[in-house]
């Protein structure tokens, strides 16, 4: 836990330095609107392990399919290792077609902390190994470039039991995630993007639905000092299936 805390503090310091440097430079900022749909599934396969899957799509920006093996640790802490495949736009092509490919192995640690009876803070640290298809003069190339990316997300969930409708529990979800790039191919965009979201959630047993808004402020990977402010509307579905329980039931029948 102490090592994890040191890593988080270091990443926060780097985020502050990167953000300060970015503010000191002249920026060309454009605005865009998008819709972000996502579905995430967790399949519990044993007491301490689960398989995690998700699919995210933002029109004109990206589609990502992800899978991972989750190890559940004491106190609600979890560690995940997995792989994802992404379809991206092509820099410089002025097209919103998702034609560029990316292979992305990833590692993650998630640490929740109870702040009150109905309030939970979660800290998520994720490491992406990004193998992105190379682009030359807006034309896709067969080779891939590689860089590292660190992602730190802090999120607050506030349950609203006074507004409960039968078995449906409403809650508010506030999150902010900062992403930083590293590697020899990173020349000007150490700061990758910042995501700030506010959503209303509905939970019933093992199913959750979150709808709301996310501001996605991203730096261009191809043009220095160019940024996009994406006003994004979100609809995310989460579900959990306990496959271990089903296997036990079958064994007893």
TrEMBL record:
Signal peptide: 1-24
Pfam families, alphabetized: DUF2490
Keywords attached to this entry: Signal
Name under which the protein is recorded: DUF2490 domain-containing protein
InterPro entries listed in its UniProt record: DUF2490
